[in-house]
What we know:
Elements lengths: L2 H4 L3 E9 L14 E10 L4 E11 L7 H7 L3 H5 L2 E2 H12 L5 E4 L3 H11 L9 E3 H8 L8 H7 L11 H20 L19 H28 L1
Helix pairs in contact: 6-8, 7-8, 7-9
Amino acid sequence: MTADDAYHTSGLYIDVELTCWSGPPPPGMKQEIIEIGVVEMDLLALKIIREAAYFVRPRRWEISKKCTKLTGITNEHIRTARPFTEVLTAFTEEFQPSKKLCGTWGDDASLIADACDREGMKSPLRNLLDVGQLFRTVFLMKQQSSLRKAIEMLNLEFDGVSHSALADAKNTARVHAAIIRRMRREPDPLPSSAKPITAASSSVFAEKLKECLQLQEQEQSRSKSATGTETS
């Protein structure tokens, strides 16, 4: 068995945006997917290698002012977009999601599966990973964090604007990469403009992260010491 057979070497990180309103949906309307963002990351190098964003035309394509304010998506974007079935086919052909790890932040995979059911299609997403739930478990959090707060806790800067499907997909990949690096005991890459973090400037989330990592290192040291004692 090769490494490619035993481990995922490529991951897709997917985010969707939905129609929304200030109150309940207008008569005859319901939430539908209007944007899908996806990035592909090399899980060995932990580098994003390609990305794509697709606008999706829902059955009822009127976009509310609240939705435009939240996502930046307008009626013009949707009027020229392809329907869900065509977008999903294009996404599947380009990224081959059934062969790769598929990560989301929350239940976006279920939203895609539900949309597929309504269209009589089968979701192409396999090997699902909720990165938000993974983050919650790794850092012993009582409640799931927002993606933006997770980025803060990892002492990273949010790349892009929240509620943009591509930006959210990209930041989900970045959180997963940061977790993998810590498991591998690899340093985080820092931009050339990055400044050293001081105790005074660290956020509460960064301090909690530091404590978690220190406890993890202490536990690993104790395990190594115990192993050395047993073999001596």
